[in-house]
Amino acid sequence: MAERLTLPVLPLREVVLFPGVTAPIGAGRPATLRAIEAALATPERLVFAVSQRQNLENVTPEVLYTVGTVARIGQMQRGLSGMQLLLHGERRGIAVHYTDKEGYLQAVVREADEMLPLNDQDAAFVALHREARVRAAELGQKSGLPDEVVQQVLAGVNEPGRFADLVAGYIDIAPPQRQALLETLSVEERLRRVLVHVQRQISLLDAQEDIKSQVQEELGERQREMYLREQLKQIRKELGEDEEGSNELEELKQKLEALKLPSEARREVDRELSRLGRIGRESMESQVVRTFLENVAELPWNARTEDHLDLKEASRILAEDHYALQDVKDRVLEFLAVRQLREAQRVAAKAAEVAEQQAEQKEAEVAAGESTETPLATATVPEPNKPAKGNDDDKVSKGPILLFVGPPGVGKTSIAKSIARAMGRKYVRISLGGARDEADIRGHRRTYVGAMPGRIIQGMRQAGTKNPVFLLDEVDKLGVSFQGDPASALLEVLDPAQNDSFVDHYLGVPFDLSEVLFIATANFIQNIPGPLLDRMEVVEFSGYTEREKSQIARQYLIPRQFQENGVDPSQLEISEDALAEMVTGYTRESGVRQLEREIGRLARKVARKIAAKEVERVVVDKAMVDDLLGRPKVHPEKAAREDEVGVATGMYYTPAGGDIMFVEASTMRGKGELVLTGQLGDVMKESARAAWTYARSHAAALQIPDEMFDRDVHIHVPAGAIPKDGPSAGVTMASAIVSAMSGRPVRHDIAMTGEITLRGRVLPIGGVKEKVLGAVRAGINRIILPKDNEADLEDLPKEVRDQLEVSLVHELGEVLAVMLRGASYREGRLLFGDEKNPRDVVPLSAGFRH
Q1: What pLDDT is attached to residue 406?
Q2: Nearest 5°: CA angle at 52, between 51 and 58?
Q3: What is the pLDDT, as a whole number, of residue 820?
Q4: Which residues are 298's β-sheet partners?
Q5: How large is the average pLDDT for residues 635-659?
Q6: Averaged over 276-291, what is the pLDDT?
């Protein structure tokens, strides 16, 4: 019976120790250290080294395998983190049971008896042993070990079982497979398993060597190919032959040499061409340089389009493309007229210069005794209206920079395209809405991967000419981020004094933008930074009247929507009443975008009926609009039906157009305070307080009883969900407050606008055209405006001016005289029809009431 030993347990993590093998072990767990100390206290210094089934910190008997190795502790070194020791495997052991003793595990171990072959001289067993030794030697050599070391190690072990354990201790296999070999007691079976693992390791090393050879061979082929290509390049160079790449480079060089570049750009191009010639085609830098040179070659450094300077033809084209917008059309025609006069002066100066040269030549010939009939050197005189293309010697006037400001849908973007067509120039449009990166305007530097020019240079390359019409759409929607401020980057682009030398970061050389006709569009002029706005000429786009919308629909929108929806004009007719109903009941805008969408909806409804053979022709009248488009979606404010106390009608401006609003004022018991509701902004609140102070200060003149000042005044502007702000509601609020406090009704058929001061002065406001058109749409034809806004009435269409009755005022007393029933204003006094002694009334101009 095998001997039994009681030994401290040394648990091993991810390690299996074989008999006859010496391995370094690191120990740091407290239980392991105590087990080692217990073993060192014995003369034999034996431990039971057994592997863990799971890699756990706290070891229990269930975690440990049963079969392990009885090992002897050799050299040992203590450290701060634990111990480092050498374990030498003595023999296999089987744990009969584990016990916990004083903080470490102890095992009763029985020595495992190996199963030797029945006949160790059997030919099969001998062949297996020899094959295992040969393959083990081969594995050692392929692993990079010296032959002498391999032979020395193998020669030291002759016993088959010990040999199998030695090889198993050094081959690279997983811990569970090592444990399986340790538990294999049959020497023949263990030897066979070890041979299988060794053969697998040899196959794996052979595969790795093949892959390594293939990679080296491929790299060698590439290097060889590059070397041969360089040789071929030199050979062709000696023979005078050009390869395809050289042809491309030569074509690019010829294209660049043909350009009339500024001196600074020419130096940069020559430098990059020289670099491209020096570096090989395989270089990463080669493609960067080539792309840069191609971008330079595609830019219009000299190419221009001839301007169409025929004013009548340009006027016809503008009138054909757009209805109304006379201010914009006049500005374009003025620009063309200036160009025409400058061109005529240039041609006259050139003709005078040629005549002077001819006269000098004739004098020289007479002085020399030659015949004056000798043909003179011809000097070409340019034809009028046809400047020579690419001639930079002729002074060309700089292009203006226009800013079209107005509500959406009034034709700002489309008229820019018409301007290009009228002038015969190329048209380029870029949208700046949401752009937050300065590189969008100026481009990226070439040092960045994927660098490209900015939108301005890309647009010029797209145009192909030096003088296109360049539309910068939505310039008020530019953003600001940590990547820079694109609005500031536009300052150089839109400054006529600087944009003749605009430097894009990608190009790195100046490019002339002075001949470009820049047109910017915006909805809110307040969102444009002051320095940028200062560089542009503002052209206001106002909203359309109902009549103008109807004309635009007839001339442009209806034909376009009929064509897009496959409806022939003979199949569908929209009456004037139906069109007017669509304008007023289904759209509420300054432009015509929504109107075009509604016309398209109506056309599709009819197209469906025609396609289904339900009808052949439809004439849409006012009654049919509701059936086709549904109930009206827009409910604009209408003029009040009767006079009311404390309710005044004002006018206001929105980006979608003008409209009217009602300001309501009411008094109630309280402490003489002012209450404001209706989501009013700070400016409107200030106007309300100024109006209230005016009413209190002029109470006697306004016939307001003293007891009214002990009551609270509540001012409300309906549509409380909509934010409202602006100074132009001052006179409206004052009228409502005075009416509520004096008990006099306000006229319902008059709308007003204007800012007020504490002294009662009425100050001018903006957006007069939109506000007046909004009042007219609401059915009001009598309006009150500040006297300083009288000139703005000229912007109104003639048909609107003819039906208006306008009261121009300087003082708030004049407003109240018009708005309050039974009131009049004479010699600075507000008089009421029920006054008995007008001489006792305090003048409004007398100052505050104390």
Answers
A1: 85
A2: 130
A3: 86
A4: none
A5: 81
A6: 77
DSSP assignments along 151-173, one per residue: HHHHHT--SHHHHHHHHHHHS--
Q: Which of 299, 346, 457, 328 is nearest to 403 (CA)?
A: 328
> What's the confidence (pLDDT) of residue 281?
65
Residue found by looking up tokens 């080692």 in the block: 36
Phi, psi of 409 (to 5 degrees): 80, 15
How high is the pLDDT of residue 719?
Answer: 75
* Residue ranges with strand state E in 671-797: 674-677, 711-716, 745-746, 750-752, 755-756, 762-763, 782-786
Name the residue among 89, 86, 92, 87 with its Cα closest to residue 66. Answer: 92
- 514, 507 Cβ separation under 8 angstroms: no
E strand or H helix at 276, and its extent?
helix 263-278
What the block records as the tokens of 327 is: 């201010």
CB 677 within 8 A of CB 692: no
Neighbours of 87 (CB within 10 A): 23
744 pLDDT exceeds 50? yes
Chain-centroid distance, C-alpha 100 = 70
Residue 72's pLDDT is 92
> What pLDDT is attached to residue 479?
76
Q: How far apart are CA 29 and CA 58, in angstroms?
A: 9
Q: Cα 102 to chain center, whole Å?
A: 71
**HEC assignment per residue over 568-610:** CCCCEEECHHHHHHHHHHCCCCCCCHHHHHHHHHHHHHHHHHH
Question: CA 730, 734, 736, 737 torsion: positive or negative?
Answer: positive
CA gap 307, 311 in Å, rounded: 11
Per-residue tokens: 321: 């493309």
- Residue 461 makes CB contacts below 8 A (sequence gap 6+) with 295, 298, 299, 300, 453
Rounded CA gap, 712 and 673, in Å? 5
Contact, 562 vs 572, CB < 8 A? yes
Backbone angles phi, psi at 571, to 5 degrees: -95, -25
Is residue 585 predicted with pLDDT exceeding 80? Answer: yes
pLDDT at 507 exceeding the cut of 50: yes
DSSP states of 326-339: HHHHHHHHHHHHHH
pLDDT in tens, 221-262: 767 777 777 777 777 666 665 555 567 777 888 888 888 888
Residue 412 has pLDDT above 50, yes or no: yes
Spatial contact of 552 and 590, defined as CB atoms under 8 Å apart: no
SS3 347: helix
Q: Could you give phi then psi for residue 79, rounded to 5 degrees?
A: -145, 180
pLDDT of residue 336: 82
- Using CB atoms within 10 A of its CB, is residue 238 exposed (0-12), middle (13-18) or buried (19+)? exposed
Give the active site residues: 728, 771
pTM: 0.61
DSSP 767: -
- Percent of the chain at pLDDT > 90 equals 18
pLDDT at 848: 28
Percentage of residues of the chain with pLDDT beyond 70: 89
- 642 phi-psi bin (left φ>0, alpha ψ -120 to 50, beta other): beta
| The pLDDT value given to residue 836 | 43
